[in-house]
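Entry 12.
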Amino acid sequence: MMLVNMRDLLEDAEKGNYAVGSFSVANMEMVLGVLKAAEELNAPVILQIAEVRLKQSPLEIIGPLMVAAAENASTPVAVHFDHGKTIEKITEALDIGFTSVMFDGSHLPLEENIKMTKKVISTAEEYDAAVEAEIGCVGGSEDGSEDIAINCTKPDDAVRFEKETGVDALAIAIGNAHGNYKSTPKLRFDILKQVDDMTDTPLVLHGGTGISPEDFVKCSKTGIKKINIATATFDSVENNVREAYKNGNIKGYYDLHEAEIEGAYKNAKRHILIFGSDNKA
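Predicted 3D structure (tokens):
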């Protein structure tokens, strides 16, 4: 049984100076692919799903699957509810057995974000679960339905947020965006370094798809201990299936099943190696 608290994974990442990959999943095949890569590379990972994705993958169905997969994994796996918007769904995820939840109050004034985050932390404490929050605005949106402008995190706000909430992980905005980037992202490493120097909380990078390996490594050495990968997972699965059909490798449903697993596996493996979390289980 290797279902673990995200808090523990991030503490280990702090000590080892690497980042843990947090991979969004939408079905069983993606879960199996991510865990295949984690077990092959002896790496800790985080399985996650965002609240906005529940219309495609209902929480009451995908959630127990994610938890059961983590419990039966041979490497440490945390199960995370990403971009939680409502206390109702956050609590439902905790009831299912998720070991960490995110309250996304980045759209709120700082005072309200702090107030709501503290409320979520109080609820999560009853389950001994970790809590992630976000300040500043990461561009785009989880499902691509909004074109949210990037609003970089103010280091002083991060200090205040940490002091007043005691949150376990803090997602910050440094020029990163959800979805596929229209051009090469120019990350604000100056802001990242300031926040890292001024706070002790493990930092989180959202919008990981399309960031260069060199920038990933630089982030992981400058306070980022959790990196979210969503769009790249979905794209890799879709592209691997397309390629399998093109090459005549799919003769029936179970060939399709294996192609989906392989797509998620290849994507997770590539990112684990970049993040430096291989052989850290």
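Annotation: The radius of gyration is 18 Å. Residues 139-149 have pLDDT under 50 and may be disordered.
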